[in-house]
Amino acid sequence: MAAQKPVLIAGAGLASLLFARSLLRSRIPFIIFERDQSIAFRAQGYRLRLSTEGLDAIEEVLGPEPNGFPKFWDRCGKTGGSKGFAGLNAVTGEELEESTGPSPPAPEPAKDAPKATPTQPGKEMLFSREGKTIGISRGDMRALFLEGCEDHVRWGHHVTGYESSPNGVWAIFRDGSKSEEGDLLVGGEGIYSKVAKQVSNGKLKTYDTGARGIHGQAPTTAFKALGEGVWRILDDTRSDGKVFAITNVRPDDMDDPDIQFGWTMGGQPGVIAPPNNDFSIIGKEAADIAKSLTANWHPRIKPLFDQMDEKNAAFWKITCSTPSGVPEWPNDPRVTVIGDAVHSMTPAGGIGANTAVRDSALLGRLLAEAGGWKEGITAAYEKEMRVYGSEAVAHSYGMAKGQFGVTIDEDTSPTVG
């Protein structure tokens, strides 16, 4: 019997690393190829809100061992309080009656896409465990998932495509070189995934909504007036469009001077304009724009921006995959995609990362049950992923369209990558 070849993984983001942890527990060989030079290459400070489904997927993969899910759970923040999740008027500081509005219908689905019906999340969706909202910074999450996989990562390897044969697959790098032969290639390298474009024959698309955002951090003292809760802050007084911010104030960390809380700001198309549309710019230029946008915000909220750690401010694009659903393409038994590479989402609803980790758990489970790669695994994974992935994208897009004026025309809107 031929020796088992490794699973090749493109990208070392959240979905890829959690998938790798699943392979590690199953003792299936794997190699991760990441274009960055190390895990600390870029700022990863903003927080992710974890849903019940997301936590269940992470727990399934990491397992009950002390250095598995219990260690991850201990690192998570648990936010409750009387508000839990609430909206604030940015200018008056008053609480909004509803923190989420009804989602408009998604576009008509494409003929080859599964049916996807967006649903409106209630506050109960945000209380994912123990009656609390569970959150963790992206950087902490990524570092925890990496544990045990360090020796399997090849840093500085940018995957730009692949070659396959009946007996294996090779990743191709930017310099034209190839990886060793693998049993399976999994593209998890985000919205610019070349693997996704190739395996789907261009059907997988990520749209640039035109909306932009800024991530930032500030000392815990800046958040004192807000108090515990997950807060959505909205400024709809501007003539050029709405601005929103989301932050998570955790009581256990409030008095720790060595901890910073993060916030995420977004604006409707045209409101936030990075210099030369350059998203590699971080630091003072991003911080100055955030301060300018919040200059007239209420004193209860304004310290988040006045006291920000300027060096960690960073721009970001708001993107979204095809709103009508994850398209179908001829299945390749040796190649598939996970996470943002197959279903990128807007920040509305906070379900992008939660859907990505579901991919990791599902594909890892199928491989574990089979003892490694087998014919039909990618087809089974894609069939199930298309259902929940399409629902999640439609949900996210519907909320963003209703709240922030984001619109996508699948025929004319610009794409990224």
Automatic annotation (TrEMBL):
Entry annotated with the keyword Transmembrane: no
SUPFAM superfamilies given in the database record: FAD/NAD(P)-binding domain
Cofactor(s) required, per the database record: FAD
GO molecular function, one term: FAD binding
Domain FAD-binding, first and last residues per copy: 152-393
Record-linked Pfam families: FAD_binding_3
Residue span of region Disordered: 93-130
Record key words, sorted: FAD, Flavoprotein, Monooxygenase, Oxidoreductase
InterPro entries: FAD-bd (IPR002938), FAD/NAD-bd_sf (IPR036188)
Top-level taxon: Eukaryota
PANTHER family cross-referenced by the UniProt entry: FAD-BINDING DOMAIN-CONTAINING PROTEIN, MONOOXYGENASE, FAD-BINDING
Protein name: FAD/NAD(P)-binding domain-containing protein
Organism: Pseudovirgaria hyperparasitica
